[in-house]
Amino acid sequence: MKWRNKGVERLPDSELAVMRLIWEAGKAVGTGYLADVLGEQKGWTRSTVQVLLARLEEKKFVLCQKKGRFKYYTPLIKEEDYRKSETKTFLEQFYNNSCKGLITALVQEEEMTEEDIQEILKILKKES
Questions:
Q1: Whole-number Å distance between alpha carbons of 50 and 84
Q2: Are 73 and 22 spatial neighbours (Cβ–Cβ below 8 Å)?
Q3: Which residue has the higher pLDDT, 34 or 102?
Q4: Which long-range contacts (CB under 8 A, 24 or more apart) does 48-54 make?
Q5: CATH number, span 13-75
Q6: pLDDT per position as a tens digit, 44-84
Q7: Is 62 helix (H, G, I), strand (E, B) or coil?
Q8: Residue 43, exposed/middle/buried by CB under 10 A (0-12, 13-18, 19+)?
Q9: Is domain 79-127 given the CATH code 3.40.50 in the classification?
Q10: Paired strand residues for 62
């Protein structure tokens, strides 16, 4: 499934988990580090992580650079851009592009605290 804005492909949860670690690192990340962390967090093997990295490279989400016998990965897509794309698609698919509909649902389901509401009001007032 492709998104309309910027043609950014939506990632499955497994690939997104890998991307989140790469984004968090803020620098080139080695396969070993990713395999260690994801092995501990998710129980994934090194070969599983390597398959996911190969998919991300194929989809142009990461750049792989070899240094000696090690591979390092850097993001080609910014986390903020990915998040914006996912939010836009979510809003289109579930709320017919209505921010009001999304916020109403959050308030009615009591997912927002009074503090959250006040912060949103501050943001809206700054942009107006």
A1: 27
A2: yes
A3: 34
A4: 49/18, 52/14, 52/15, 52/18, 53/18
A5: 1.10.10.10
A6: 999 999 999 999 999 999 999 999 999 999 999 999 999 99
A7: strand
A8: exposed
A9: no
A10: 75
